[in-house]
Amino acid sequence: MIREPLASPRGQGSDFELAAKQLLEVRRRIEEFLDGRVQAASVIDEGLATLWRITARSAEGGKLFRPALVVQSYLAYTGAEEVPDAVIELATATELLHLAFLTHDDVIDNDTMRRGVRNLLGSVEEIVGGSEFDDERGNRLGQAAAILVGDLLLSEAHLRVARIDLPHAVRLRVLDAIERALSVSVAGEFSDVSLSVRADHPALAEVLSMSSNKTSAYTVLLPLELGLIAAGGEDLVDARLIAQFSDAAGLAFQLQDDLFGVFGDQHKLGKAPYSDIREGKFTALIALACGTPVWNELESLLGDPQLSEIDGAKARDLIDASGSRAAVEQELAAQFARASAAARAVGASGREGDRNLAEMMERLLMLLERRTS
Question: Which pTM value belongs to this model?
Fold first, then answer.
């Protein structure tokens, strides 16, 4: 949840503050859904109920960034003080979509921690109820559990949209936006994996394209689109500028994550330290370190599933020494500047809704620049 709302130039309480009030309701609905799944599953199979309990536990503490952006874009464009239930439901659907992606992402990355607690992959002992198991079979069970629960979360995100009281044409626009975001995000996630297993070293442009696809479409563009569709402003705002803003802001978001994954406070991240290095992810940091004097030594540490914290710290220092950290920070600043230019262009139309939306987009960038995890 947004904890530090900024003052609004409109003087009636920031749209971030208004959104924060609605996010409490989004969080309540997510918790209600997960609790309901536990209860319903208990009638079907206690094993399934256990999976939902673990999922509910690892879902706690999310920032609700995407739901906030749905609500913020609606409030900014309409100038309204109240948020219709349909918008809150759309916001809830984006968080369920995010939870589905995180659950599947844990399988892809073989992560056992999420938000500081053990996820489904890391809770095999709880899932099997004390039965004996070997690591290989336990890992397979954890992966199966995460894939299946992720599928159910993805299904629920669509069911939420299906149940919202919306005109048919509006519902189709919402579903089309979700479909586009899913396709682009899956393309980005697949590229992330494929770049890491290639024998050659991908160019920085490929890595940045992957990073943008993986994050921009569902983290920034989709929430903005859903808020604008609900506000009736989708056809009025320049879609090209919204896409430019989303691409730049989303790429900045991902570059921050890449930096946090190596140089951030691992306790704040809630993930195992140096997981990106352990998985051999070919991030912008790694692409920029290629060909530098430290590359051979750094490459020997990448993709080692048994990487120790000492070797992880060594890899971190090598990345820093290569100059890639400074280069990524420079690219990050360039993407923030690009996003800001797109936001200003949105506001230049002269329409009040566009101006309010542009102001919200600029404040969003200010919040993103202050991210620490």
Answer: 0.92
